[in-house]
Amino acid sequence: MMGKGLKWGLGLGVAALIIGGGSYAYSQHKSQQETKTVTVGIVGDSDRRLWEYVKEDAKKEYGIDVKLKTFTDYVQPNRALADGDIDLNAFQTVNYFDTQKTKYKTELTDIGKTYVTPIRLYSDKLKSLDKIPDGATITIPNDPSNAQRALDLLEEADLLKYDHSAKLPSASDITDNPKKIKIKEVASDQSVSTLKSADAAVINTNYALDAKLDVDEALYVESVDDAHKGYFNLIAARKGTEDKQAYKDIVKAYQTEKTVKHMKDLYGTAQQPAWGKYAEK
């Protein structure tokens, strides 16, 4: 027969296993619950409107609670992501992403494309491109990626030419300027306000939409083709976290035909999907 001491010891062991197993199951459940809440950094209210729909689908289809954190500039969201203050961000183009990774040495990675918004040249004073006078002042974004994008736009519009061998081109790299246009570099989030003083301004679409500018009244619109795929927007995560199922599910919740419809309803021609079959156009 088994001694009382041995029975007591086995009982303790079984109890410990049950308690330990319960603790492990609880910690696993808690961990799973934590991964179901994902904070996404975005820029501006125009993006928020679309993400509110994505939030609903992520919750309904995958049980993920998406929390949105809105930033007002293009620098903070990548810093916040790198520091772990947010889980994902969705606001930037491929070119801007690559530039920021190099500049700040951030360990971030692209986990899915979202949309493309052709950048545009706007004016409160002029009605058409051919009305831009000699000596006009045009403002462009001052961060390297968007500055190059603005110069590409102005070159495509036959207003100037610049040195394409420049690694991070700016206004100082302009080589041909027949109208002697004055290029003024400003922070992207200040570009709309420059319409009051400048003759025209190159403005990122999210800021244009936030300011209720009519994108169809722009003086010039960037082409959307293979040469401009660096301007497709993306969802970014920290390296090492990109395989989390919740993150993959958020990308799936975004990349749907429902999102395409919401995009068209919200933004008209200002924004176009940039994933799957849409990216192959």
From TrEMBL:
The keyword Lipoprotein applies. It is found in: Membrane. Keywords: Lipoprotein, Membrane, Palmitate, Signal. It is a lipid-anchor. It holds the Pfam family Lipoprotein_9. GO terms for cellular component: membrane. It comes from the Bacteria. Belongs to the nlpA lipoprotein family. This is Lipoprotein. It comes from Weissella minor.
